[in-house]
Amino acid sequence: xxxxxxxxxxxxxxxxxxxxxxxxxxxxxxxxxxxxxxxxxxxxxxxxxxxxxxxxxxxxxxxxxxxxx
Length: 69
What we know:
alpha+beta
């Protein structure tokens, strides 16, 4: 009997929360179905992107605090 293709897929439902430029807390719910390899790669890219966004946000906030913005 052949293996089901679903054995190689990752079904992921997640929620991401973030604060926008107007200090509103927003929630995004997302559902995906990916291969296990794609899932790992995507999670790594998302983590890197979120780190970059947070770094930019921190610079902007820091610039405002020092009067440079």
